[in-house]
Structure prediction request, 665 residues.
Amino acid sequence: MTPAGLRLGAPGVYRVGRRPPPAFQPLRLDIAGFAGVAPRGPVDTPVAVDRWSDYVLRFGGFEGPGLLPYAVRAFFAQGGARAHVLRVAPLPRAPHAAALAACALHRIRLARADVPAAASGSGRPYDVHLRARDEGSWGGRLSVRWDFTGAGHFTATAHGRELTLPEGLTPPDGSLLRLQAPGLGPAGGFFSLLEQAVRQDTPGLRRRIAVLDRQPGPGTRSVDVDAELVTATVTITDTDPAYPRQERFAGLGLNRAHPRFAADVLAAESLFTTPDGEWPEALLPPDAFLASVESAVVRGRGGEDRYAGIDADSFHGTTPVELLPIGGGESTEDPGREEVGMDRLALVPEVALLSVPDLLWFHSEAPETTTETPSRPGSPVFVPCPPRPEPMTVTVPRQQALLLDSGTQLPEIVRRQQRLAALAERQRRFVALLDVPPGLPVRAVARWRAGFDSSYTAAYHPWLGVVAPDAPQRRAVSVPPSAFAAGIIAERERRLGLHWGPANALAAEAVTSAERIGEADHDELHLLDIDVFRGERDGFRLASARTLSHDPDYRQLGVRRLMTMLRLVLDRQAQPLAFEPHSARLRSELSGSIVELLRGLYRAGALAGESEDEAFFVTCDERLNPGRSLGLGRLVAEVGVAPARPLEYLVLRIAQDADGAVTVV
Prediction:
């Protein structure tokens, strides 16, 4: 293999330059991950979104009972630029029968081409099915339209099953042709192109022919035909009035041999649907006149929202995966296991901030309707009896999502959040953002805080209220504060740098808070390392950026994230050095590359000290790498840094001189 950048000329010996020294570059730690409940979207599959509209396209809006959309919107409102979103659902996951039954099913009436009529070339009616890609009642709103187009018209001569193609026309194998010829009826008949070949009739005369699945005319005589290529266009529309969306696939083939067979393209590219059950090898339009076809929802398969089945196990752990054949039936393979919920989201290498806004999820069934009879007002005077008032019927949502009660279910809340904190501590790659349970007094918050000790976690308080843009009554919804904090952290890193303390910023779009935090309560919460959103005249301001670590060296969130970034950079970007010859040159190159990385951070203000010698050191010499270490294949380098810590306190001393002058020190 020719090395990159080496240009060869005349034959000879060329000297190849050696590998350039490694260049370490800082990594982004502003990408967040959110796991929660949504009305639609792929289950347990992280989806990258770069703006709020991307989230709406895949997961819907605020119509579901979960807090996930509010959290993602709050993240982008603060200035976040990228997030990975994961939708949770009840266990077991797809392709289990219960999960498949929750997906809407649509029927399309086409024709099957494996038993064609000899005269017309049209097949028998046949139903194919498209299943909504993801579970939920949203799939019942889909409409699927199939349009068939005849294009590339040409005139040719058919010799038996061979059809001469005009110059320059090379339709793909598996194409569907509509031929018009005597005996094929007014609309003609459909024929499948099996393969193409070149015939050498006379020396110097070649012609390209298409081999059809059958001959268009009786006998073996030649037949002049009019031909055109038939393709399908599938348009899938989500008729959701609040968030309409559509996708369109053109130029689809109706034969499995076609490179863009409709079933294969929909299975690979559609975000809305996927083929369900067995599709035949070849399909035809419903009639030879290329009429359009509209889908119909299969009775009893309009999709189902399984909110009632979501519980704590939906958010973490692993689950068996049952492998079902595409046509249904029982699997013959042993089931595997895969991560679900936040465990799956934690595997995304980009995620550096993890928030689970629905971690306190609790579902209850509410009665559909209640009837109340208004009481009659009392009167000291007898009056004629008024007409009996009609009972007033109040409609209540059939399903409602609640939060675990902080007073009676605090142990369960702590158990769930400790699971998230343990995940962050084990991965050592991201920071888990926790939400102090709403409604806790300060003393109870202290008891809650005692359950955590990790520099990879940070806690935020109180919950903030936002108003959904499409809320008809403009009522505020309480949103976990970690979502606002994730956006503030991301925006601060992108604008000022990773080392800048992610605090002293207003929570955009927050209009109220679940609790008012006074000065005395704020003092106690800050000493507990709780990051508080303080209510001010212009909004709610994040007043600190601490972790839940008891180690004073990692108390500041900026320090934790800086050290995490350095470890990830050295771990990932030094991998190409493996199996390099261990020499003084390699040690010098490694030291120089690390020094350049740290020098850039020092100049940006991420490291403390009056000089580089005070800010960091890098050692990679013979003392750290003796002969015994060389024999074990080790290369050891010691790196020390002095992170710059954010300023939290300003202490002012006011003094009055004997002459009455006041000085501030």
